[in-house]
Specification:
It is a single chain. With about 300 residues, the protein is mostly helical. It is built from twelve helices and no strands. The model is unreliable at about 295-300 (pLDDT under 50).
Length: about 300
Amino acid sequence: MTKENSNIDKGFSEAPPRVNEWKRFSRVFFARRLVFFGLFVLFLLLVTAIFAPLLAPYDPYKQDMRNTLQQPNPEHLLGTDSLGRDTLSRLIYGSRTTILVGFATTGFAAAIGVMLGLIAGYFSDKIINMIIMRIMDLLISFPMIILALFMAALLGGGIQNVIIALAISTLPGYARVMHGLTLSTKENDYIMAEQAMGSSNERIMLSHILPNALPPMIVLITLQLGTIILAEAGLSFLGVGIKPPGAAWGAMVADGYRYLNTNPMLSFAPGIAIMLVVFAFNMVGDGLRDALDPRLRGIL
């Protein structure tokens, strides 16, 4: 056997090195420097929400009419609003509203949307597909903020109704994405093999199609979190979101809007908080999109 043939045989006999998936994921995910900033902002948001009673220097709901509209000072670092409430304390407690609305809305909409899209995509030749997707088409024909505004006005204010309104307005996005993923996945050979072996539809959908659709859905959920937080702030700004005296960043921006010339911090502080949190979710979502992209698998 010649040296050349020996090298060829050796090449055929040696398996390629196994890719460390965690190493690949972390390398691609942290390739964007802004991902570190996004994670840091989200960590601060979570810590602030959990330890709000310990971090807030004052009661965020206590009114003090003798100290209204104070400029930032050593006692009130961000000043006070028109009712004498400490702006910093309300900003800290507003983080709880942001996390609750963001995660509850996204979880509710994603769970229902994914299941509807999975059912419609798997039974694409049945009438249930037409019914589900036409309803989704009807909902998606309205701009998200307009539909959320209509639903919030119809249901009334309050955190529970805001969550329902935003969930309904974002539901079509999850359903349509899952529908497309299901249509493409169910044509694979291993799905057909499962069907040929007599596996139930429920087993195929939940054990094979759904796990393969999770990476892009995780990316969509992360990106939608920022959109939800921005939409909630918009609803509260318009007066159909979180009811007073609840601490909500959008409502704080609206309250301070009348005093932009004399006390701009009332609007600037919650506005900057909204901007940073939405930006952080978008950066983390972009990092997850790159790391979970199947085209990048195997790249060290």
